[in-house]
Amino acid sequence: MQTCYEVLTDSRWEIIKEIVSDQRKRKYNLRDVLDAQFYILRTGTQWRNIPDTYPPWETVYYYFRKWKKDGTIERLNATLNKFERKRHGKNETPSLLCIDSQSVKVAAFISEDKGIDGNKLVNGRKRHIIVDTLGLIWGVVVHAADIHDGTKAHLLVEHCLGYLDRMQKILVDDAYKKVFYDWVYDNIVGLEVEFASRPPSAKGFVPVKWRWVNERTFGWLNFFRRHAKDYEKTTNSAEAWILLTNCQIILNRN
Questions:
Q1: Cβ proximity of 153 and 126 under 8 Å
Q2: Is residue 71 part of a domain?
């Protein structure tokens, strides 16, 4: 994992330029706009403190909102996931996925969609992600931390149904035993839900086969200061930043 921010290189831009560019003439280069978003993500700087070497913050923010709303960020994420899987000699889409959540504190000015996670003693939000065996994020849902994991996990599966045609099994822990398992049983034929948790007698962190990739992916988020807390006023923005994180991690490998 790279610890310092690196600008988009020519080779990295070639991979993604067709997704974010529509060939229109613009005052500012979309490569610089996306680069500025990645800079914010890695360094944690505020919109208004973007360096002068990038387009004005209003322009960068405009495209962040636009790409978030029209699905560009999701398409970019899915395309890069397929690219990375092919680079590892795997099929473009996974058959085995894992779901888990992470509770994080929110910034002081956040008032919406937050609550207290009684188990983790965190007043904030939960980041719910679904990843493949490489740890690549295929979907994310952010919600208040006081909402039980099992009641929101189905949103991740619904999101993936349209383009993960090979999805056969999902690994989860015991928190998903009731509501989520029943939802899958009632709504999706042939999808297997497997419960994999650490032994009850174990203390501390114990790697569980394949499900440890969730924890590793959450660990990757620590390298991006925008994720030190949830600084987003809306959960939609928080979800978009997490997908952009996954995109930046993949691009940095190439």
A1: no
A2: no
Range of the domain at 109: 93-230
* CATH classification at residue 150: 3.30.420
Spatial separation of the C-alpha atoms in residues 148 and 103, rounded to whole Å: 11
Q: How many whole angstroms separate alpha carbon 33 and alpha carbon 146? A: 36
Q: Is the pLDDT of residue 237 over 70?
A: yes
What is the rounded CA–CA span in Å between residue 104 and residue 121? 10
Q: Is residue 125 part of a domain?
A: yes
Number of domains forming the structure of the chain: 1
Average pLDDT of the chain, as a whole number? 89
Q: What predicted TM-score, i.e. pTM, was given to this entire model?
A: 0.92
SS3 assignment, position 123: strand
What are the Cα distances from residue 9, in Å, to 6, 175, 181, 188, 202? 8, 42, 44, 42, 45
CA angle 168, 172, 176 (to 5 degrees): 115
Q: Is residue 33, in this structure, part of any structural domain at all? A: no
Candidates 176, 253, 249; CA nearest to 219 is 249
> Which value, to the nearest 10 degrees, does the dihedral of the CA atoms of residues 100, 105, 107, 108 take?
140
- Are 79 and 16 contacting, i.e. CB atoms less than 8 angstroms apart? yes
Q: Is 89 exposed, middle or buried (0-12, 13-18, 19+ CB in 10 A)?
A: exposed
Burial class (CB in 10 A: 0-12, 13-18, 19+), 252: middle
Residue at token pair 């056969």: 168
pLDDT at 199: 55
Is 206 inside a domain boundary? yes
Among 180, 182, 183, 214, CA closest to 197: 214
